[in-house]
Specification:
Layout: H1 2-5, E1 11-13, E2 24-39, H2 43-46, E3 59-62, H3 68-79, E4 87-90, H4 94-103, E5 108-111, H5 112-119, H6 121-124, E6 128-131, E7 137-147, H7 154-190
Parallel strand pairs: 3-4
Antiparallel strand pairs: 1-7, 2-5, 2-6, 2-7
């Protein structure tokens, strides 16, 4: 879209499945972990169900069918032999999602960073909370993306260099976390 047409110099994006990935240069940032959010006095927070399937009896606020977030959530549920939500409000509006979650017993998936912000006092004053899930789920990785071979202005090159430092630092942190987890696992096996 806009990146290939030259309307954007770069994007934090995923390469669409219908595009040739060789058209792009990417600097991987990572997966985007997801969480479920509910209102802070939701019944599932007071009495967590023993079975995740019980959550499917509540209303859910989801983006439209075929969207990355929805297909990822549905694939995670199906992989665990869980039913899909039965009552769904389809919307692309994040504001409608927040209002619905805040004023009803609905459940909505959002990026974990977004869930944590809106669950904080800074976000919505604690009116929304993360609903614990017994399994993690994340949408596919995203990257700092440019069009391969496109000439960039000096200002864009400088901005890309600044962003690359942050992306590389984040990748280094992820690598160190992974190495620490592997080392911890090896130590545990040695005992």
């Amino acid at each position: 879209g806009a990146l290939l047409e030259g309307n954007l110099d770069f994007a934090f994006a995923r390469i669409p499945a219908n595009r040739d990935p060789r058209l792009f240069e990417t600097r991987m940032i990572g997966q985007e972990p997801m969480s479920l959010v509910v209102r802070s006095d939701h019944p599932l927070l007071r009495n967590p169900p023993d079975d995740v399937a019980a959550m499917m009896e509540y209303d859910w606020v989801l983006p439209g069918e075929g969207t990355l977030l929805r297909t990822t959530l549905e694939a995670e549920l199906v992989a665990r032999n869980l039913p899909l939500p039965r009552k769904v409000l389809n919307t692309t509006s994040f504001l409608l999602t927040l209002v619905t979650v805040r004023q009803t017993n609905a459940i909505a998936p959002v990026a974990t960073s977004v869930a944590q912000f809106f669950a904080s006092q800074t976000g919505m004053g604690g009116a929304i909370a993360e609903l614990p899930l017994p399994f993690p789920f994340a949408v596919e990785p995203y990257a700092l993306t440019t069009v391969r071979g496109r000439q960039q202005s000096p200002a864009v090159r400088e901005m890309l260099n600044i962003l690359a430092v942050g992306v590389d630092a984040r990748a280094g942190q992820e690598l160190r976390r992974g190495q620490a987890a592997l080392a911890f696992g090896e130590d545990a096996q040695d005992d």
